[in-house]
Design a protein that fits this description.
Strand 5 and strand 6 form a beta hairpin. With 144 residues, this protein is of the alpha+beta class. The chain has a single domain, classed as Nuclear Transport Factor 2, Chain: A, CATH 3.10.450. The strands form 2 sheets. It has a 4-stranded antiparallel sheet with strand order 3-4-5-6, with helices on one face. Strands 1-2 form a two-stranded antiparallel ribbon. The longest helix is centred in the middle third of the chain and has 18 residues.
Length: 144
Amino acid sequence: MDNHLKESYQDILPQFGNNGLVGYTTVTDLDAIKNSLRNLFLIRKGEVPGKPWLGNPVTVFLFDNIGFFEEQSIKASFINTIENFEPRVRVTNLSVDIESEYNSISVYMEYYALYGTKQKAENLRFTMTYNDLSSINTRIIQGV
């Protein structure tokens, strides 16, 4: 286990209402790690000013004719994103489900969350779908 990991982590989770940002809550430890993963997967590469390498390029694949090599690229992009930007997570299994006819990519990931001296097995399902309204919908289900 890494020695540089803190005993406790804290993050903020914004809450949005009908009129925009209405406040935020504080999340700690495992919930902070899940929030960080969620943010990493939802941020597109080049979206954060001054950090063009931060984020995940998976949205590029939504409109491609996806084969074996593209599927491997998607897996590699998720693993690289986690290895480079989330040191508290160790991926143990990652699978990709492609539904080209629906422009949908689902990623299922099993991982260990490391915080302080603690280690917890977790899993997460991340789905991106392009719909008729010219927008990309994302859904993250944790603890599947």
